[in-house]
Amino acid sequence: MKIYIKSPGRVNLIGEHTDYNGGFVLPCALDLSIELYFEKKLNESHVNTDLGYSMNFNVSTPYQKSNNHWENYILGVINELKQIKTELINFSCIIKSSLPSGAGISSSSALVCGLIKGLAELNAIDLNNAEIINLSRNVEHKYIGLLGGIMDQFTILNARKNMAIFLDCKNLKSKFIKINFKEFKLLLLDTNVKHNLANTEYNKRVSECKKSLKVINDFCNKNYSNLSEVKDIDLKSSKNELGETLYRRVSYILNENQRVVKSVNFLENNKLKEFGQLMYQSHLGLKNDYEVSCDELDYLVEYTMKFDGIYGSRMMGGGFGGCTINLIKESLVEKFVEEAEKEYFSKFKRKLNPIVANLDQGIQMSLI
Ligand code: GLA
């Protein structure tokens, strides 16, 4: 008997870098996924992927960081599970993926959540979604070095088909929003840029936000527990103490939170054009105030403005590469992609990967 897991990627309609600031996000699960097949083994464990990576090990060997970056996802998950149950069973795992990595659609969280879910089942460890989210975040923080929030994991575990999750990351309260874009589609354009500074810069933003919170709390004599709670008046009065850069970072977070709330309203009332405008504004904030974009992403967002049939565009995910998300008339997709691919290649000498995003349900498990 095998355990089969299908763990999807995530798209985020709006609400970027707000999750680790206790703010709002509006993500969905993608119909592209990582599939994992687990089976018990007696003496040794094997992991094989369709990308040509493979590893052999024994689960009882004490944890040691690997020089092969991707192996740390597996070793990290095993080590975290061992904190719950010391004796794990050896296993084989075959991994197949239709999710491009480094595209900002959360292939790493899909992998980690899939591994945790499958290995928990194999070892009869009872974990609920909240526990899987925590474990998965620990793996990414401790073994991969990305100090990310919980948006990706929450989405992967809880998403529903054709729904977005309006999630308050402060208390994990969520509401499902039905998505019906009618004659519009979500088109992702993967820049094929994978910045090796991405983790470092991401972590730098996390610490800038922590620092800003302390400065505002100290100066205003407040006790805000995260940046999303900060009142505009306190941000304004701390402007000098924060300095120009941190002030822009916090302004972005407060504005982006408001954009998420407005977006939900627009989407519930089928106001796609208005929602699209918020996507453009979100991109400007990410580019100018939060400074997590890059030339390729900016170019692609700006390029869409020439087309009447595109309502919105912005960079998606952590930034410094990855993809843009575009709200585009279905009838325009083919022509637009053809032109964008050509223009993008002639400017950056890189291939553009278009992905039409259909919204699917969250992680699925079955015994086969
Ligand atoms: C990455 C992180 C998420 C989130 C986004 C930016 O995907 O894993 O937690 O912070 O970046 O919105």
Describe this protein's structure.
The chain has helices at residues 71-82, 107-122, 129-144, 151-158, 198-220, 232-237, 239-268, 272-289, 295-304, 333-348, and strands at 3-12, 24-25, 27-40, 45-49, 54-57, 91-97, 163-168, 173-178, 184-194, 310-316, 321-329, 353-357, 359-360, 364-367. The protein is of the alpha+beta class and 368 residues long. The strands form three sheets. Strands 1, 3, 4, 5, 6, 13 and 14 form a seven-stranded mixed β-sheet that branches. Strands 10-11-9-12 form a four-stranded antiparallel β-sheet. It is globular, with a radius of gyration of 21 Å. It starts with a strand and ends with a strand. The mean pLDDT is 96. The protein binds alpha-D-galactopyranose (GLA).
Order of helices and strands: EEEEEHEHHHEEEHHHHHEEHEEE
Derived from helix and strand composition plus strand pairing, the structural class reads alpha+beta
Overall shape: it is globular
Instruction: Give a quick account of the main beta sheet: strands, pairing sense, barrel closure.
Output: 7 strands, mixed
What's the CATH C level of the largest domain? Alpha Beta
The CATH architecture of the largest domain is: 2-Layer Sandwich
Characteristics of this structure?
seven-stranded mixed sheet, 14 strands, 368 residues, Ribosomal Protein S5, domain 2, alpha+beta, four-stranded antiparallel sheet, globular
